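Annex B. Sample input.
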Amino acid sequence: MKFFNFMNSGEKEVLSANRNEQPANRLFITKHMKGSIRAIQVEVKKSTHKTSYINAECANIHTHEGVIEGGDIRVKHLKGGKIVANTAVVDFVEDGIIEANYIHIKRLGSRNLLMATDNIEIDKVDGVKNTITINPIFDTEKLDKISDLYERVMFYKRESASTQKMAEAKRLDMEGRSLNAQKCRAEIKAIRDSGKLPESQLMVTVREFDIISRDYQRLVSMIETLKAHTDIAAEEFKACMRWSGFSLPQRVICNSPWRENSKIIFNLPKYNLSYNPSKGEDARELYLWYNSALSLEANGEFDIKINKKELSHDSSH
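Annex B, continued. Sample output.
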């Protein structure tokens, strides 16, 4: 068996456009390619037509303008074409669409759509108006559990802070009434010892003080209960964060300054986060980081973290 089957320019439809047929083993196309082909391995020495379709496990194409679907795809110049693959490595792309798990672009031209579930790595940005999207694969069950635990901790913290304010107000009120209440108690006792009935106002003053005292003790007990609930939920949250981590592994890596009018998008289960690098910005690494600080100021959500050229990997944490 030959390592490659050769196609010349007169054989534009080696395989039927029916994509359910058994693919060829290896195809080596020496000139401009049109039509639809399926093969395990394809190499196109020149270019593909914009209406062409290729399905291959491995492909190496010089200039691609059509559609290619496959496993590991290598293209020198993607010119208005589309790649859907596991891994896509492209030397230069303009007006192209790439959907892959991992994407590596050596030179990024203008008006491209890049979508990956893993890393997107760019050596140099030459163009503008690019949209770069990361679609990370989430364990939604774990993410929902983390979010629920965070919300529970924050609920207890908010309730505790509110209760402490009320308790402090009760304490100040109680201290302000204490001396007068003691005098009223002493006066009530003296009047009763004399066989008389104390005035109702004296009784009301003491009664109000006793109610405030009981309210204060009730609030103190609530604060202790809320603290216990907060500690339990916080420990569960921290345990979840140990196996979930603080950041997702998917990154947009750019080894040169950015050009203007490009957008980087991270798709989350319930919403998206986006970032627009400015012209000349050295945003070398962008990724999702979960704000796990257990404080009222934290938002308990994902943020986009950016490592600049001069920063080490861990310096943004």
